[in-house]
Amino acid sequence: MSAPTTSILLIGESGVGKTHYGAQLLRRLMNVEGTLRMDGAATNLEPFEAALESLNEGRAADHTARSVYMDSVWPVADTAGNKATLIWPEYGGEQIKSIIETRRLPESWQIRVDGADTWLLLIRLQQTRVGEDIFSKPLSHLRGAPTENHEVQPSDQARLVELLQMLLFAHGAAAKPRPRPHLGILLTCWDEAGADGLPDATLAARLPLVSAFVKANWAEPMIMGLSALERPLSPKERDTEYATRGPEHFGYVIRPDGERTSDLTVPIHALLGDRA
C-alpha cells in the first residue's frame, strides 16, 4: 500500500524565512532525530542544499529568485513508522506580493491550491504593519484634521486576510466539493519578535484582524512560533560559532502551549496529523 500524499502549500512573502526553515527542516529530517525523519530519496533539493551550504559557513542564505517555483518531494515517516509524502514548494516571496496587488492567482498557484490539503502561513511579526483604523484612531480624532486627498494603502493585516480570502475562493471554485485545507501558522523569527506569550495570544495581540479571520474560518488552526536560525545571520559576514557548531544545533519551535523544542519537524508533523 502506497504512502498517502500530503501537499503543504507554503504561504509567505519575501523575508519571512521560508528557505531557511526548509533548509533547517531538511537537515533535521536527514541527520537529526526528531518527530519526523526522511524515509527515502527526496527530489529537487537544489535550493535547500544551496541554503544549507551558506548556513554551514555561518552565513544567511540568499533570497529565492522571484521567477523560481518548484516542488520538492520529501518522503517522511514518524517515530511510529507511519509514512507520508511531503510536497514542499520553493518560490520567490515576491510572488505572494504580486498575487495580492494584482488580485490574480497565476495558473501555477491555482494548481497548487487545487492540490494542497494543508496550508502553512508564515508571518514575520516585526515586518508587518498594523495601520490605523477606527479602533486605534477614533472618529473624534478626525475633527479639524486636514481633508486633502492622499493615497490609502491597506495594512499588512488587511493584505494577509485578502490573500487568505483569495485562496479560499480559489479552493472553493473547484468542480468537486472537498474539505477546507488544514491551516497552520508559524510566527517566524521568534527570537527577534520580542514575544513572551503563547503563539496564539501573540498573534491575537499583534495582528487581531488576522487572528479573528483565521478563527472564524478554521475550527482548530495550528499556531506556533518558529526561530529557524535562533539568531540573525548576515549573508556576507561569517558567524564563527554557527559554522563551528553546525546549523543543526540552532533553531527552535514554540509549541501552542508555550513549550520550547529544538525539533523543527514538530509543526509539519502536527499538520500531517493522522496521515503521517
Describe the protein.
The chain has 276 residues and is α/β, with parallel strands linked by helices. The chain has one domain (5-137, 152-275): P-loop containing nucleotide triphosphate hydrolases (Rossmann fold, 3-Layer(aba) Sandwich). Helices cover 34% and strands 19% of the residues. It has ten helices and nine strands. It has helices at residues 18-31, 46-56, 94-102, 107-115, 156-172, 190-193, 199-206, 208-217, 240-245, 266-272; strands at residues 5-11, 36-38, 69-78, 83-91, 118-123, 182-187, 222-227, 252-254, 260-261. Strands 2-3-4-1-5-6-7-8-9 form a nine-stranded mixed sheet, sandwiched between helices. A hairpin with a 5-residue loop joins β8 and β9 (260-261). The longest helix has 17 residues, at 156-172. It is globular.
Outline of the structure:
The protein is of the alpha/beta class and 276 residues long. Helices cover 34% and strands 19% of the residues.
Helical proportion, percent range: 25-40%
Class per helix and strand makeup: alpha/beta
Average of pLDDT: 84
What is the global morphology?
A: globular
Tell me the strand order in the biggest sheet.
2-3-4-1-5-6-7-8-9
Count of strand segments: 9
- What CATH calls the topology is Rossmann fold
Please outline the major beta sheet. 9 strands, mixed
At the first level of CATH, the class is Alpha Beta
CATH architecture: 3-Layer(aba) Sandwich
Question: What keywords describe this structure?
Answer:
single chain; 276 residues; alpha/beta; Rossmann fold; nine-stranded mixed beta sheet; 10 helices; 9 strands; 34% helix
